Amino acid sequence: MVNGVNLLFQFLDNFAFIVLAAAGLAIIFGIMGVINLAHGEFIMVGAYATTLANIRYGLPLIVAVPVAMFVTALFGLVVERTIISGAAPNWLWKYVRMGLAGGLGRLAALDAVPGRVAGGLEAAAERLPEQPLVEPLYDRLADSMVATWGLSLILVQGVRIWFGNSLDQVGTPVVPFVGETVSPGEIPVLNLIVTNSEFSYSAYRVSLAVIALGVLAVVYVLFTKTDFGMRARATIQDEDTARALGVDTGRTYMATFAIGSALAGLTGALYAPTITMVPDMGTGFLVESFVAVVVGGPSVVLGTTMAGGFLGAISATVTNLMGSTFYGRIALLLTAIVLIRFLPSGISGFVRTIRERRQEAT
Amino acid sequence: MAAETAGSGSALPRPVVAVVRAWQRIFHGPNTIGNSWQFWAGFALAVAALFSYPVLAGGYQASRFALFIVYAFLGLSLSVVWGYAGILSFGQVAFFGVSGYTFGVVALNFDTPFGILGAFAGAVVAGAALSFVLGYFMFYGGVRDVYVTIITLVVTLVLETFMSQTAGDEWTIGAAPLGGFNGMPGIPELAVPVPGLLVQLLGPLGVESAPIVLGAGDGTFYRFALALLVLTYLGLRALVNSDYGRVMVAVREDEDRTRMFGYDVERVKLAVFTFGGALAGLAGVLYAAWGNYVSPGVYALTFASLPVIWVSVGGRKSLLGALVGSIALAFASNSLVGEWAFVIIGALLLVVVLFLPRGFVPAVRDMALFAWRTARRYRSGEPEGSVSENPEAAADAEVTD
Amino acid sequence: MSGDGFSRRQFVTAGGAALVSGLAGCSGGGDGDGTDAGATTDTMSSDGTVTLGVLEDQSGNFALVGSPKHKASLLAIEEINNDGGIMGNQIEYYDPDPQSDNQRYQELTRRMIQQREVDALWAGYSSATREAIRPIIDQNDQLYFYTTQYEGGVCDKNVFAVGPTARQQLGAVLPYLVEEYGPKIYTIAADYNFGQLSADWVKVLADENDAEVVDEEFIPLSNSQFGSTINNIQEADPDFVMSMLVGANHTSFYEQKASSGLEVPIGTSTAMAQGYEHLRLDPPAMANIYAGVNYMEEIPTERNTSDGGFVDRYYEMWPDAPYLNEEAENNYFSIYMYKKAVEQAGTFEQPEVREALESGITYEAPEAPEGESIALDGATHHVDHHMWVMRADDQHNVEALDDQVIEEQFLSNTVGCDLTSEDEETQYTPQDYFEEAG
Predict the structure, then answer these.
(1) What's the pLDDT score for residue C364?
(2) Does pLDDT of A179 surpass 70?
(3) Residue C73 has what pLDDT?
(4) What is the value of ipTM here, to two decimals?
(5) Average pLDDT value over all residues in chain A
(6) Other Cβ atoms within 10 Å of C38 Cβ, number
(7) CA-to-CA distance for B352 and B357, rounded, in angstroms?
(8) According to the model, what pLDDT value does residue B57 have?
(9) What is the mean pLDDT of residues B8-20?
(10) Please, which pLDDT band fits residue B305 given cuts at 50, 70 and 90?
(11) Contact flag C279-A166 (C-beta cutoff 8 Å)
(12) The pTM is what?
């Protein structure tokens, strides 16, 4: 039975989930052309950081969430420098190479070394690879997929080895963001009576929808009103020209990845009280985030919003109609297929095309 | 290669030279690694060693290794579709699974040797049919690049979600329950019926009418799969080195330019994708017959990404790379035990992507060439840079990246 | 690329990568079986040593519930060995880690049977695993113990399914809740074999107890968002809910239900006893949850909770273990039952041991109160379990409310599976019940 109020809250639930899952990934994919298959694990890092901050160090949730965001951003920075851009290995190689070349040369100059071998050593020193040793992963879709998949394997198993098979859960906050254990009667809920049935909705989950909108707004402001946003958009549009105009694209990418990671960490932190803390919890977010990013199209804010709205609406409606989340999930996946097929540039690409056509017409 | 044989041509009889020239024409080309007699010698040696593996290591090890051979088919299917035609598909496992299930359903219902043969054929057709439909939907709808990848992935996930809940009795096709999440056990093994004529002719020699059952435990399945793999590899080599293979590579390199030259790009992509689907389907049938079991786990994201990983690490633009990569990685992840296994595999992936982006096998081959040339130069004292008497040089001249 | 096809850079990087791969191959190559308790290279087991195979998930998705199984198996083996072994022979065991991967299970099962030639095998947590290896078991006529709670119905001459069946577990808790709260039931279950079949059993039991299932909802295993489910429950307004949710994603339901203020009592066969949610989640997530189980760490029998009892011995051997779960006890007592059967048969040969098991073995398991024991039903290869109804309160303290012996009924009474007289290798479902019962 389609119940309007239920439908609304379920839609908000789905919308929040999809938007929060996809936001970080959309930024990274949209700007850097990197497919981060470890996105779920970034979310896991944020969730684990929050849980550990709250449980082991007693930080209240309102402090633990920003801490988790920071930790995940830092982690993302490390990943970006080592794997995505290869800057760290290249930097390391610069000095290693100098040392090796110098060492081989000195070795060859020793009297004790026979001539032929010395010649070989010198040739070897000359043949050491030049920099850069490692190419960045930007716009290398398949390679970034494999690399980040390897990263996700390491992360999931590493977390399992270090923290065990599960962590104790953080309780849902009483008043948003101040966590304490409570008895059932004290949990804040929105109680509504609709058509003679009494429904209650978790206030926390409703607030997630509000936070999702807030995230979109912040990202929008970030990209349109700040210096960084301008540089980032220039880089998306035409990297070479941007660099020619003096934009430090390397730095832009670094900051972008950190921001995307921070958003993933935020998602993990927000969902930590509601999901089981197991090392592979990230996989539950991966599919929705990918589908939303691709369906959304090239524009980060507009695309994610519309994808979240559209897919969330379909999923909620079908679930409500059929009474089972199975149909909702199938409907979501099938909708994604249809949308990608008929809107090959995603929803925001479609919107952009319409806008351009209208501009041309006037 | 031509130079070598021509040089000693006077010593070899004409028919042999003709055969060698034909072999080169069919199997050599810039799209594959290994265009020298040294390669084929090594290849023959490796195949011989692999064929004698069951005798050397026992039936259990052979059955274990047979799974990796089955995976090699899956890796080859992705290499054809991705490495040679540029279509990155996460959906190979979808065709793999559909064929596996089809084989199971038909074989359980018609549990006779001819029935099983029919199941084999029908299952491969089913895999090809699904890939045809999906390919038509995508390519003739103008879907390209990463969107193709996502659609194939989503299709796989739809299959996973759907098949996982087919547990009830209403989901039984004849004598075969689909089994839902628990999967479908009891799938019969492959059996080759022995034709009556053969029994009549060779009866005195001990040929019975009983069908030859390709069991996993005694090495017969292993040998069958290995033989099939060698034939498939040779067939694919011929394909990618033919004119059609060049068209595939052209599509991979630049679709629009190829279209401007007058080729029907959509048709090429559809044909290649369907062929890849059939190949993945073949792998699926072998898989179902190997384990006598198939489950929705083959549609999971983790398994769907495995072929991509095998082929990326091995070298996607090379058939040999995909083949070796699949077998080697499957073997490695199977042999590694303990909690650090996945960490090591993840690290391996990272290292390969960062430092060997073209894949392992091309890098090894380049290293071998480099060592060969350096040794030659060292011995003969020639200056650097000369390309003398290099067995790979002629074929290498057109190596594309 | 030039005709040279190779650059110096690639030479070094290729070499480095080869080194890493070589290390990878070296560090894990070979059999890598984990701990072998003094296993010899001699694989023949008929010359006075007994070899057991224990394939339990020590890593991967099911490690949370599989790890206690593994630990309890080793506890039983060590206790028996310290006590002189079986008929004077020390037990050797092989316990490689299948990593929650069914293909690995298939391969390791083959290895256990063909290479190690184990006298008995304990393997697998999920039903999918059992079904994946059952063909191999049946091909080789290997004696096999499946110790997880499951949907029931396996009638296979090689399989001894010693965990409680859905009918036994639900049969313990459902009548209690009907009496306590009323006849309106809402079922939520994982959308796969175990969940769907358990839901069918809920209907059967509701029928037998004058109750009614007002609605059923099946949730895919990958789903972790339960907003709509919670709303549906509120709309249906049942007297109590029967929950057969499975897996880490589904555990989120309890947390989300609590934060939505949903207070309806919930009966379950899957929560608390396997994954110790009452310890992992903050109260009051598991408040008013009633578990129908044959064993939980908290059941109040002497053999379990007294000083030096089962719980104490387990934590003495495994001080870092987080919990002693339902399946662990099944592994534990079935190993002891195997010992008894061997002693009764007087040999390790599997056909004779199987016959001994079918003659009806009893054992004083920790799940049974002092003075009682549980019995293996020879005809069906299942166990007549001592079932408990355990409830968690607002502070997640667990207490026992009811206990009784529930015999295996489905296979013996309804379907007529008698493995002592007829060899079978099938699995029956409630559909067969409906057909038989009319």
Answers:
(1) 92
(2) no
(3) 96
(4) 0.82
(5) 84
(6) 11
(7) 6
(8) 85
(9) 78
(10) confident
(11) no
(12) 0.85
CB atoms closer than 10 angstroms to residue B125: 14
Helix (H, G, I), strand (E, B) or coil at B387: coil
Q: Do C219 and A325 touch (CB under 8 A)?
A: yes
Dist CA C258 CA A170 (whole Å): 13
Whether residue B395 has pLDDT greater than 50 = no
∠ at Cα C210 (C209, C214), nearest 5°?
110
Q: Do A154 and B88 touch (CB under 8 A)?
A: no
DSSP helix/strand/coil, B397: coil
d(CA C1, CA B398): 9
Higher pLDDT, B203 or C15: B203
pLDDT of residue A7: 86
Confidence of residue A173 (pLDDT cuts 50, 70, 90): low
Q: What is the 3-state secondary structure (H, E, C) of chain C?
A: CCCCCCCHHHHHHHHHHHHHHHHHHHHHCCCCCCCECCCCCCCCCCCCCEEEEEECCCCCCCHHHHHHHHHHHHHHHHHHHHCCCECCECEEEECCCCCCCHHHHHHHHHHHHHHCCCCEEEECCCHHHHHHHHHHHHHHCCCEEECCCECCCEEECCEEECCCEHHHHHHHHHHHHHHHHCCEEEEEEECCHHHHHHHHHHHHHHHHCCCEEEEEEEECCCCCCCHHHHHHHHHHCCCEEEEECCCHHHHHHHHHHHHCCCCCCEEECCCCCCCCHHHHCCCCCCCCEEEEECCCCCCCCHHHHCCCCHHHHHHHHCCCCCCCCHHHHHHHHHHHHHHHHHHHHCCCCHHHHHHHHHCCCEECCCCCCCCCCEEEECCCCEEEEEEEEEEECCCCCEEEEEEEEECCCHHHHHHCCCCCCCCCEEECCHHHHHHHHC
- Residue B115's Cα: distance from chain center in Å? 26
The domains found in chain C, sorted by start residue, are: 31-164+299-385+405-425 (3.40.50.2300), 167-293 (3.40.50.2300)
Evaluate if residue C256 carries a pLDDT over 50: yes
Write out pLDDT tens, residues B340-363: 878 888 888 888 888 888 888 888
Q: Nearest by CB to A184, which of C224, C248, C261?
A: C261
For residue B360, the Cα-to-chain-centroid distance in whole angstroms is 17
Helices (H) and strands (E) in chain B, counts: 18, 6
Q: Which of C429, C325, A172, A46 is nearest to B168 (CA)?
A: C429
Tell me which residue has tokens 């859905």: C166
- What's the rounded Cα separation, in Å, for the pair B20 and C215? 73
Task: Report the alpha-carbon distance of residue B309 to residue B303 in Å, rounded.
Answer: 10
Q: How many CB atoms lie within 10 A of CB A114?
A: 9
Q: How far is C347 from C47, CA to CA, in rounded Å?
A: 11
Set of chain C residues whose Cβ sits within 8 Å of the Cβ of B58: 115
Most distant CA atoms of chain C, gap in Å:
85
Mean pLDDT value across residues B175-188: 86
**Pick from A129, A274, A324: which is nearest to C9 by CB?**
A129
Task: Output the pLDDT for position C249.
Answer: 86
CB-based contact C128 B181, cutoff 8 Å = yes
- pLDDT category of residue C23 using cuts at 50, 70 and 90: very low
Give dist(CA B358, CA C147) in Å, integer.
48
Domain boundaries, chain B: 31-396
Q: In chain B, positions 230-269, which contact chain A (CB-CB < 8 Å)?
A: none
Higher pLDDT among residues C266 and B341, named by residue: C266
Give the contacts of C78 (CB within 8 A, at least 6 positions apart). C317
The reply to whether A340 touches chain B by the CB within 8 Å rule is yes
Average pLDDT over chain C, rounded to whole?
Answer: 84
Q: Which residue has the tokens 């003679």?
A: A196
Of the pLDDT bands very low, low, confident and very high (cuts 50, 70, 90), residue C35 is very low
Model confidence pLDDT, tens digit, residues C351-369? 999 999 999 899 999 999 9
What is the least distance, in Å, from the CA of B267 to any CA of chain C? 30
